[in-house]
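Translate structure to sequence.
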């Protein structure tokens, strides 16, 4: 029996990845880093500081401290929050309503640590998720694609077993994290990546959108979910 559904945030709760891509490209250029929109999508879900340290190592062949990476990430966050607020993903409210009606609790597992985004989650989805069930970059030392964020999400949900949970993700690194944690992982393709990229990351099943998952969720629970 499924006891908890763990959602990624960007690209699942919010149609926000376009804004993130622009903010990444503009902010990293200020530090001499050539980061493309494709890079932003490929590294989605990882802790921002980890992405920055990786990019600096690849392009400048130097190791930077987490504090230096955080300062660079703060600039990325500043640009992101100066942009128009990303809309709620179509179908997500309806999906959460069905999950709640099924007696399944909801947790959020994000690579972000931006407090305004966490506050927005509680404003938009407070009827479904409580603050103690939100896992952020500050809860783990190793972000996605390591299993740690989703393992913490299980702990916050009440020490739920991986076999009693599902993950809803849109990014390869997040999918790999859910699979590594031993959780049945659903991919929703809300971005420019091909379906095959998400399936190759290990997704157990793929839907073309959050709305498509919402439209099929009850039948998925009764017919296709292996619990």
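Result:
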């Amino acid at each position: 029996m499924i006891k908890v559904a763990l959602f990624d945030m960007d690209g699942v709760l919010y149609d926000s990845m376009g804004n993130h891509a622009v903010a990444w490209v503009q902010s990293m250029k200020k530090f001499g880093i050539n980061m493309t929109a494709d890079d932003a999508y490929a590294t989605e879900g990882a802790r921002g500081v980890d992405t920055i340290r990786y990019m600096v190592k690849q392009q400048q062949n130097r190791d930077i401290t987490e504090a230096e990476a955080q300062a660079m990430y703060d600039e990325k966050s500043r640009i992101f929050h100066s942009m128009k607020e990303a809309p709620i993903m179509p179908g997500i409210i309806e999906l959460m309503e069905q999950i709640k009606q099924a007696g399944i609790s909801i947790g959020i597992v994000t690579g972000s640590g931006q407090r305004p985004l966490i506050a927005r989650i509680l404003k938009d989805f407070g009827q479904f998720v409580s603050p103690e069930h939100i896992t952020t970059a500050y809860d783990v030392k190793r972000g996605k694609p390591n299993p740690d964020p989703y393992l913490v999400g299980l702990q916050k949900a009440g020490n739920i077993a991986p076999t009693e949970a599902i993950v809803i993700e849109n990014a390869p690194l997040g999918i790999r994290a859910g699979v590594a944690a031993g959780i049945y992982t659903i991919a929703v393709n809300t971005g420019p990546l091909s379906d095959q990229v998400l399936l190759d990351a290990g997704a157990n099943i793929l839907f073309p959108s959050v709305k498509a998952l919402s439209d099929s969720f009850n039948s998925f629970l009764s017919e296709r979910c292996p619990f």
